[in-house]
Specification:
- The complex is a heterodimer of chains A (115) and B (111).
- Helices cover 0% and strands 57% of the residues of chain A.
- In chain A, β5 and β6 form a beta hairpin.
- Chain A is built from no helices and eleven strands.
- By secondary structure, chain B is an all-beta fold.
- Chain B contains no helices and eleven strands.
- In chain B, β6 and β7 form a beta hairpin.
- Classes of the chains: A mainly beta (115), B mainly beta (111).
Chain lengths: 115, 111
């Protein structure tokens, strides 16, 4: 258990509403990532962070924003949710002292449905 | 577009057999290679990492890497029904810590 939690675990929302997903870690990992997983597409990187207030875009960043104001929390915001953003969202972490910096550990996931 | 390719399966093997899962990647600059296991409705779980050409063994699992041919494989010996899951191959992008994932191979182990 890499000490990662995600909240909420399940959410149903309506098109056009903003949604924020939270990833919380307890082990002081430097790097944090947000992925979405869809059938046939595998895991795709949305945004990642390499430190507090340091973030960058991934492969599928359109329609998403992130913030990291402290080491332990990485927030993913869907500015105006669309049905195409219905997916399972995973947070991952890496960069803990004593472990390989590139080895990622995943949170339990958030299942988001946009109606 | 850097890619990681896996056969989606399902790969069906009898209990006790060796399951062989394969993965090819396009980025010649990749240096880190990972296998994750994902049970239905659960999050990916790291099985093994490999960085050098050759074989790396951990219990019933062996990862094989061939950088010249750009493929990674995972062998599962003495397959058990509990090994039935989707196996994800992941490769780092260039010199970064970002990973590119394949879409996974579904493994079914028949009792």
């Amino acid at each position: 258990d890499a000490g990662i939690t995600q909240s909420p675990r399940h959410k149903v929302t309506e098109t056009g509403t903003p949604v924020t997903l939270r990833c919380h870690q307890t082990e002081n990992h430097r790097y944090m990532y947000w992925y979405r997983q869809d059938p046939g597409h595998g895991l795709r990187l949305i945004h990642y962070s390499y430190g507090v207030k340091d973030t960058d875009k991934g492969e599928v960043s359109d329609g998403y924003s992130v913030s990291r104001s402290k080491t332990e929390d990485f927030l993913l915001t869907l500015e105006s949710a669309t049905s195409s953003q219905t997916s399972v969202y995973f947070c991952a972490i890496s960069g803990f002292s004593g472990r390989a910096l590139d080895t990622q550990y995943f949170g339990p996931g958030t299942r988001l449905t946009v109606l | 577009q850097k890619e990681v390719e896996q056969n989606s399966g399902p790969l069906s093997v009898p209990e006790g057999a060796i399951a062989s899962l394969n993965c090819t990647y396009s980025d010649r600059g990749s240096q880190s290679f990972f296998w994750y296991r994902q049970y239905s409705g659960k999050s990916p779980e790291l099985i093994m990492s490999i960085y050098s050409n050759g074989d790396k063994e951990d219990g019933r699992f062996t990862a094989q890497l061939n950088k010249a041919s750009q493929y990674v494989s995972l062998l599962i010996r003495d397959s058990q029904p509990s090994d039935s899951a989707t196996y994800l191959c992941a490769v780092n992008e260039g010199s970064s810590y970002k990973l590119i994932f394949g879409s996974g191979t579904r493994l079914l182990v028949r009792p």
